[in-house]
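User: Sequence for AI-2E family transporter below. Tokens please.
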Amino acid sequence: MATIYTPKQQRVLLITSIIIIAGFILYGLSGYASAFLGAGILYVVFRPWFTALAIKRKWNRPLVTTLIIIFSLVVIILPFLTLSLLLISRIQYYSQNADDILNLIHKGEELTGFKVTSPQNVRQIVQQGATYASRLLPSLAGGALNFIVIIGLMFFTLYFMYVQQETFQKGLQKYLPFKRDTQRELGESLKNNVNANVLGQVLVCLVQGALTGLTLWIFGVPDAPFWGVVGFFMAFIPVLGTPLVWGPAGLIKLSQGDTGQGIGILVVGIVVIINIDNLLRIMLAKRMGDIHPLVTLAGIVLGVPIFGILGLVIGPLLVSYFIVLIQVFERDNRSLEQEVAVDQVRVQEAAERET
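Assistant: Structure tokens for AI-2E family transporter:
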């Protein structure tokens, strides 16, 4: 029996059906987007290891992939989860005991003579901040089963991305709606962003967090390890970063009459911690993807509210992809204009020859 649709209508309905089904799939998997994004990040991070062992030395692929997964679990996931849980527990403590923060604010008001806000507003801000931070960071308290599913799905995806690497890459090349040169630029942008915002950034943040915690411990600030962990997470924010931790600590020490300790914290922060940050970024920029600080800052503001802690990487990546696609669009338009100009010249020359 003949169909009632024309070939053009069939094509339109086929595309519409694909879009609708894809929309349902994306909606159903939206809660696990961090698992797929995390798998992609780990794939880029450990791809040189996989290439060296499984491709060049011909080691067993499933074995190499399993070793990479175990290494990433032990060295990356578990320590990061521990830091997150430590930070969340202390944030929850301060949200439930806002008097400690109120005392610090009152001392700051006495030092500056400027009234910040009412105690009720401070308590509300602290509680809202604790809720927001707890939502961004991975926590078993938010659902152990959901956390296990996300981690399992991430490693499951990573396993097949490595074991079936050629099929995975061919699929990307086939179905991505970009030219090969554009795909190559997007891949280079992904590698630079992961290197700069994962490997390089985490290294810089670890050094800054450790120096912040050590500095506060030396000068007698309570809960120095906790504030070192806070410094690690704050260091992801360009320009501001750890000064948001050691700056208030130094001012509080000054307000308490501990002038030597307060000045010491501020001097070490300005002379050592900030300069170490700048020095490490300059050294790592040449080796680990040179990403402009504005791209990183805009990406963090964009990505963190959407993707949580993974937004520290995904946000700058989206901004970089946007810039790359704009450059590709500009280059293609320029090439098209040149082709049109050449065609016009040829038409004009042909017309002149006929006359």
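The mean pLDDT is 75.
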